[in-house]
Design a protein that fits this description.
It holds the Pfam family Na_Ala_symp. It is a multi-pass membrane protein. Belongs to the alanine or glycine:cation symporter (AGCS) (TC 2.A.25) family. The protein is an all-alpha fold. It has a single domain (2-448), classed as Amino acid/polyamine transporter I. The protein has helices at residues 2-34, 38-41, 43-48, 64-75, 82-91, 95-119, 133-141, 144-172, 186-202, 206-234, 239-250, 253-257, 264-276, 284-287, 295-325, 335-347, 350-381, 385-403, 408-448, 473-482, 484-494, and strands at 122-123, 129-130. Helix 4 (64-75) packs across helix 17 (350-381) and helix 8 (144-172) crosses helix 19. The radius of gyration is 22 Å and the shape is globular. Residues 257-262 and 479-498 have low confidence and may be disordered.
Length: 498
Amino acid sequence: MEFWVSLTDQIDTVMYTYLLVFLLIIAGAYFSVRTKFVQFRYFKDMFTVLTEKKHVDGHDAVSSFQALMVSTASRVGTGNIAGVATAIATGGPGAVFWMWVMSMIGAASAFVESTLAQIWKVRGEDGEFRGGPAYYIEQALGMRWLGVVFAVSLILCFAVGFNGLQAYNLASSFEYFVPNFATSGVPFVIATLVTVFTAMIIFGGVKRIGVLTSFIVPVMALTYLGFGLVLTVTHLSDVPAVFALIFASAFDFNSIFGGFAGSVVVIGIKRGLFSNEAGMGSAPNAAASASVSHPAKQGLAQTLSVFIDTAVICTCSAMIILLFYVNGAPGDLNGMPLVQAAVQNAVGEAGIYVITFAIVAFAFSSIIGNYFYAESNLKFIKNNRILLLVFRCCCCVAVFFGATSSFNLAWNLADIFMGIEAIINIFVILILGKWAFAALEDYSAQKKKGLDPVFEASRIEGLPETQCWATPREKLDHMEHVGASEAAKKVADGFLRE
């Protein structure tokens, strides 16, 4: 076991530090330039597109807002708390600055991959939309085998590795309250409850996942942000010192160039990129599920999700931790103990309850969001109801054992599998990015005419065949007049034939 942990740890380090970080930076910078910095130009539209109603009804169709919440649920996990603490403890406070920088650059990659997922999404038997890198690899590149490799790596990463780890983090958050936690029987009780609640959601289908995340994500985010805001306001005099600490560390020569692999820049970039997952190929699976009139709309919504994750949630965690830094010496604390010490130092024992709630909510929402990604990719490999039932049961087992175990090897394996899918996705979106640029130009042209953008695949010259974008604007307008239910039936009956 020690051998395999050591080996996978070395592979993980090389893959992320010397390959993936630079690939994601190059891709993000390239997409930022080619889209004329869409992440800033259309910042207002990122919010307006969320109010759009579903354009096609169906048992499992989800809205633009629900798709955003599913992706945000997966992005925003315990890493936004403990991960930020680790970045600060190992890289220095300046890591926060480089996290901000990479969220701004990576947002362009998020736009491109999510727009591509919308263009080549497919419609399922229950009216749900599915899509993601595996789907656009098969349809746009004609390489199903590569799509299957991507799908397998994502399933192993999210359904087994990351969900086991999120369940472990959720259960271990109660160690503070229970003496002799490991032998108390409490982990078994927590594991059972988490598994039951997970089963209730995932066996309810895509729509139930969308509804749950639409509720739990805003609640958990607002609660955590509210706590961070109160903490900041009550320590307002220390805020200038916090920002001074961040910028002094971010541009310190020794911090930047002293052992580059572990420098403040690399650690900040890694934590930022792998917290918001921009360009990694995971969020497009949620983006494809949205029923919208134009692919660029969900691309913009997913760009907003990157900002929510890094610029908002991670910044809140950083503020809580760095207020502790400027008021005392944290010593050798790292990860969750550092967060708990920071909270206890600021508000006393009561703050521990808020942090525990945040960990539980963040971990559970990530379990549901991660499952959603895995299910979409399983259906890409083979869409079979019996296989799906077995898969859902296996996912529940992974959650149960994750909550009662420690997963050092699983963590490394999950990172490696995610690295494989990320490498595949980056090269693919660099090849297919021109179609996302074309969709953005089409969106911009219609906006300039004062129209609500509607996408028709036939308007994009040379675009590889799509399944869901043949309905012209005139038909969509007519559908709104004849009524949603009647229109939905007509579209559902003839969608693929068109």
